[in-house]
Design a protein that fits this description.
Layout: H1 4-20, E1 31-37, E2 41-43, E3 50-59, E4 72-76, E5 82-85, E6 99-108, E7 129-132, E8 134-138, E9 149-150, E10 154-157
Parallel strand pairs: 2-10
Antiparallel strand pairs: 1-3, 3-6, 4-5, 4-8, 7-10, 8-9
Length: 159
């Protein structure tokens, strides 16, 4: 009995403090943060090479993701061209639907755009490298647009 009392006391304290832990509160407007590219150099061309873009997200009401609507927007900062991707539907999890996580996008390389070059992606190349960065934002099902983040530079090898 003497050894059982301290064990029950410790369990009671752990239960008390565990009950006091509150889940994190996120804004209903999604927030993102760029994390990384899987590699910092890729060969130019739309089918020659890929990198994985990773960013984190939070969303307070958990209405992020869709099985049919594209909700990730990736903008080439050199040209303004936009590509769209999709975060799949994320089912609600419990009473508080705030969610957080990481998204990975497999991104096929793009073309070098160089001064005095007749056409992007085709020789003759006036330089052996180009750099590109992207702006990224996401939208949830309610149409709330996240903050926009800019990636680090990605080096394109003009081959």
């Amino acid at each position: 009995m003497k050894t059982l009392l301290p064990i029950l006391l410790v369990c009671g304290i752990i239960h008390f403090f565990g009950a006091c832990v509150t889940p994190p509160e996120y804004s209903d407007v999604p927030e993102i943060e760029f994390l990384s590219f899987s590699k910092t150099e890729v060969r130019q061309g739309f089918t020659k090479d890929t990198t994985i873009i990773t960013f984190s997200f939070t969303d307070g009401d958990g209405d992020l993701g869709s099985d049919s609507i594209r909700n990730i927007f990736l903008i080439d900062n050199r040209t303004g061209n936009e590509e769209q991707f999709r975060i799949p539907f994320i089912p609600p999890q419990g009473e508080n639907n705030g969610i957080s996580g990481e998204v990975e996008i497999e991104f096929f390389s793009t073309c070098c755009i160089l001064p005095n070059q007749p056409q992007p992606c085709f020789p003759p190349f006036t330089q052996d490298r180009d750099t590109v960065s992207f702006d990224i934002y996401i939208e949830d099902q309610a149409g709330n647009r996240s903050n926009t983040v800019t990636t680090s530079n990605l080096i394109l090898l003009c081959e």
